[in-house]
Design a protein that fits this description.
The protein is of the alpha/beta class. The protein folds into 2 domains: 15-132 and 281-297, Rossmann fold (3-Layer(aba) Sandwich); 133-279, 3-Layer(aba) Sandwich (Rossmann fold). Helices cover 36% and strands 14% of the residues. The protein contains 11 helices and 9 strands. Strands 7-6-5-8-9 form a 5-stranded parallel beta sheet, with helices on both faces. Strands 2-1-3-4 form a 4-stranded parallel beta sheet, with helices on both faces. The protein is globular. Pathway: Pyrimidine metabolism; UMP biosynthesis via de novo pathway; (S)-dihydroorotate from bicarbonate: step 2/3. Its EC number is 2.1.3.2. L-aspartate binds at residues 82, 165, 217.
């Protein structure tokens, strides 16, 4: 695989790079209890400037399964409260021998700025409303496991599209892999830029024609004004209700990057129903992040499974 200096976003990754990351993620997904020493003796830091449960802990599990020493940075007890910049924090960690940093931040473009000036490997764990590349990878891995392929699938992403960094990564990755991407949701929550080939459709078309119905959380923390009067109103107009779920085509599945607002974007009874892959997504988060960390820190030394390298997408 071509060496990656960082994983900041999926916009500049080729189809081959995406496929090889997914292949390696599947390698680890098939070995859920395997403990490796691939990163033994190497230090990785997690710097989360925004709240997180799934992403933060799955990165830590991935790091420990690869044998790395893990440092969890807590902004409230660090020198950032005294005015230290993230750049100076990273340079301090570099001076101590830390080789990689997983960063979640509200500031879009921060990782691109840091990548120009530091030697440490950087992994984007979500920057503002820009991208969330490892979430995209675990979503794609989950779809590949379910359907055996990605090319030709129709995926509907529904909800608060404007504020979704998950969508930001999928907009770049899915078309490269031959996925037909549909968008649906409130007009006020549509993204400003929609790539050619990505279609905006009605809720009914999205739900009735898609192999994957992916609901997105309403990110009220990023809204400057209220866009609906009540949770019940939003659920009725743009949520995956029990009635809408009966319209899904045979074999279609439900996904959600989580956290889930039960009763808002998705009815609570659907979160863990038999067609839901939401918990499977969480499980696959560890494998996807193991693949990313291994690729960044091992580079060309990584040995890919021949049988997986030729997998159909």
């Amino acid at each position: 695989m071509n060496n990656l200096a960082h994983l900041i976003g999926l916009k500049d990754l080729s189809k081959q790079q995406l496929v090889q990351l997914l292949d390696r993620a599947q390698y680890w997904a098939a070995r859920p209890s395997e403990q490796a020493d691939i990163l033994r003796g190497r230090f990785v830091a997690n710097l989360f400037f925004e709240a997180s449960t799934r992403t933060r802990f799955s990165f830590e599990v991935a790091q420990k399964r690869l044998g790395a020493h893990v440092l969890n940075f807590i902004p409230e007890t660090s020198s950032t409260v005294k005015g230290e910049t993230v750049y100076d924090t990273i340079r301090t960690l570099e001076a101590m021998g830390v080789e990689a940093a997983v960063i979640r931040t509200k500031k879009e473009g921060l990782l691109q700025e840091l990548a120009q000036t530091v030697d440490m490997k950087l992994v984007n764990a979500g920057d503002g409303t820009n991208e969330h590349p490892t979430q995209c990878l675990l979503d794609l891995l989950t779809m590949k496991q379910q359907f055996g392929m990605l090319e030709g699938l129709t995926v509907a992403i529904i909800g608060d599209l404007r504020h979704s960094r998950v969508l930001g990564s999928h907009l770049h990755a899915m078309p490269k892999l031959g996925i037909n991407l549909l968008l649906a949701g409130p007009p006020a929550m549509m993204p400003a830029d929609i790539p050619q080939g990505v279609k905006v459709v009605s809720m009914e078309e999205a739900i009735q024609t898609s192999d994957v119905v992916m609901m997105l959380r309403v990110q009220l923390e990023r809204h400057t004004e209220s866009l609906y009067t009540s949770k019940e109103e939003y659920h009725k107009a743009f949520g995956l209700t029990l009635e809408r779920a009966t319209m899904m085509k045979q074999g279609a599945v439900i996904m959600h990057p989580a956290p889930v607002n039960r009763g808002v974007e998705i009815h609570t009874d659907l979160v863990e129903c038999e067609t839901s892959l939401i918990q499977k997504q969480v499980t696959n988060g560890v494998a996807a992040r193991m693949a990313v960390l291994e690729t960044l820190l091992k580079g060309s030394d990584t040995k890919w499974e021949p049988s997986l390298a030729t997998a159909t997408y």
